[in-house]
Specification:
By secondary structure, this protein is mainly beta. The chain has a single domain, classed as TolB, C-terminal domain (Neuraminidase, 6 Propeller), CATH 2.120.10.30. 7% of the residues lie in helices and 46% in strands. It has three helices and 31 strands. The strands form six sheets. Strands 3, 4, 25, 26, 27, 28, 29, 30 and 31 form a nine-stranded mixed beta sheet that branches. A six-stranded mixed beta sheet has the order 1-2-22-21-20-19, with no helix packed on it. Strands 5, 6, 7, 8, 9 and 10 form a six-stranded mixed beta sheet that branches. Strand 21 and strand 22 form a beta hairpin. The longest helix has 14 residues. The two termini are 18 Å apart.
Length: 366
């Protein structure tokens, strides 16, 4: 599918947009331009319906996210208040490991799991509350040894994290900076690069409020040269080419919703005020060398159906698939609401979790 783009006339269009928005400032004085280079599309080139098979019950809580490495599904247990944050499920043997990484303030413990993954042969996780990154060889986890973590401090709490090349990682969520993504060298604990900024024409618009409104999570291409930022409240993704900034762009999906930016001061913080029309868009994701897979909710918090006992606007019934150039590939239509996904390296097998049945799921995809 060919995307509609404004890149050839972006300066002219940007000027027109700013004039139009300021003309309407009585309705909404706060405006944000995500990127000069914005592409959009009205529908995915194809839909794929998927039927899941239940393969194993998960009794420890509710997986918030999962990562597939080799034949091991690493499961983050989002409901844990005490006990263990992670479990491994062996797809071949159909056996769960013991839990690891306990809740707490100890050297091998965390209070939050802001992000986790496997980079090269290293399992990493980020605790945004304690501001530290834990790392361990992934083989140790598979052998049931998870008490020899290295840990690295971060200078502040971030919203999302992903590892890229040369032992570097990227983060977003710096509350008081217009910068979208910062890159850090893990060993030196110094900022090595930055990517993208929020364009905010009105100087009275609070940047911390904007960051709260446009929350997004990061996923990195396995090769480490590209990063995608998936927005939680607008149907948009933003692609960052770490080698060539000219390729950076925003891709707007079929809903193409906009946020009504209203803020309320609370102490030194500007809160983003959510209205009833806020749509929950992307609620997680996973990547392969070829594609970006993003579970899509599309629900509004107030839309609860009385027949849906376990309604949750963080559940998804669709997965939007893009390639690493931002082209829409397909929309996967699921047979139930899910939380968390993982996809095999060959893009042929999808894993997920059914919050209603409590089972890990598996499905073939094309």
């Amino acid at each position: 599918m060919k995307l509609k783009t404004n890149s050839s006339t972006k300066y002219f269009l940007k000027t027109i947009v700013i004039i139009a928005l300021f003309t309407a400032c009585n309705k909404n004085k706060h405006i944000v331009i995500l990127n000069d280079n914005i592409e959009s599309f009205s529908e995915f080139p194809k839909n794929e319906k998927v039927l899941f098979k239940e393969i194993a019950e998960f009794k420890k809580g509710e997986p918030y996210s999962m990562v597939l490495t080799d034949s091991i599904l690493i499961i983050e247990n989002s409901k844990v208040k005490k006990g263990y944050n992670f479990y491994n499920y062996n797809i071949k043997s159909n056996v769960y490991s013991k839990g690891y990484v306990q809740k707490g303030r100890g050297p091998n413990e965390v209070l939050s799991t802001t992000g986790f993954g496997v980079h090269k042969n290293i399992f990493w996780m980020y605790d945004g509350i304690l501001k530290k990154i834990l790392q361990v060889n992934k083989d140790s986890l598979f052998l049931g040894v998870a008490d020899n973590f290295q840990w690295f401090p971060t200078d502040q709490s971030y919203y999302s994290m992903a590892f890229v090349k040369n032992n570097k990682y990227v983060v977003n969520g710096n509350r008081y900076s217009k910068i979208k993504i910062q890159e850090f060298d893990l060993d030196k604990n110094i900022e090595s690069n930055t990517y993208g900024t929020f364009d905010i024409p009105n100087r009275n618009t609070p940047i911390d409020g904007v960051k709260a409104a446009y929350q997004a999570f990061l996923l990195s291409k396995p090769s480490g040269d590209k990063v995608v930022m998936a927005y939680r409240r607008v149907d948009a993704i933003e692609l960052f080419d770490l080698k060539n900034e000219a390729n950076n762009k925003v891709v707007r999906g079929p809903i193409s919703n906009e946020l009504k930016l209203k803020f309320q001061k609370k102490g030194v913080i500007n809160l983003f005020l959510k209205d009833k029309e806020i749509i929950n868009t992307f609620v997680g994701g996973t990547v392969t060398d070829k594609y970006i897979y993003l579970p899509f909710s599309g629900k509004k918090k107030h839309q609860k159906n009385i027949t849906d006992i376990k309604f949750n606007y963080n559940y998804a019934k669709y997965i939007h698939v893009y390639d690493w150039d931002g082209n829409p590939v397909k929309k996967i239509i699921l047979d139930r609401n899910i939380m968390a996904i993982a996809v095999s390296k060959d893009d042929k097998t999808l894993y997920s979790f059914d919050p209603n049945s409590g089972y890990i799921l598996k499905a073939d995809i094309k």
